[in-house]
Amino acid sequence: MSDNSTATARNTPKARKAFIPLECNPEVMTGLVHKLGLSTCLSFYDVYSIDDPELFAFIPRPALALLLVFPVTKTYEEAKRAEDADKPEYNGSGDEEPVIWFKQTIKNACGMFGVLHGVCNGAAREFIDSDTELAKLLAYAIPLKPAERADLVESSDALGSAHQSAATEGSSEVPDAEADVNLHYICFVKSSKNNHLYELDGGRKGPLDRGVLGPADDVLSEKALAVVRRFIEREGGENLNFSMVALASSLE
Questions:
Q1: How far apart are CA 206 and CA 47, in angstroms?
Q2: Active-site residue set
Q3: Quick check: 191 and 98 in contact, CB under 8 A?
Q4: Which of 19, 155, 210, 243 has the fewest CB within 10 Å, making it most exposed?
Q5: pTM higher than 0.85, yes or no?
């Protein structure tokens, strides 16, 4: 399912910096997070279908994060505007947050933000090795407000360098960092604080609480996948340009 699934400038208002779009490729993503400091005990896997459990039965459970790449269509934009219309801008910070959310201010970087949201939340956070770039970034980010977190990510040379390397390793043609593309990454995680499913998108006003999951439910449980299916069903089956990868225990 690897393809050139990327961010869209429409979700990064006032972008001051641009990244080469990250390919939706589990090997590339796994290499990226390991380089930043996630334990090699976790890896990303292609999710070939969310309607046939046999097609994701090879993925170790529990799955700790699910990244969805989808087309930014008029239908999606209208649904996003309607949902966000009455929401205040998120201004949370600190250890008590149910999830940590990063506001995206870098054009074409939603792949990186999706990865960051996946490894910095829920049970995956416990697999970040100490004294690594990822551990340092998270420690600095937790007490900061969203605007300050955005500045932290944008100014991180280590993050930028690791992303640059990963973005040029995929199997697809490498696009320009300033290219306007219409595919977007979001991440679903289960909070370790309240067992709720959260949709994390740096281009929204904040984290989106999608409801409580049972103690045994993960991001590939039926309750979680019902939320993911809304993105596909909203397009009426007319646009099949969706991809997914899940974060779970490594097989080796």
A1: 26
A2: 110, 184
A3: yes
A4: 155
A5: yes
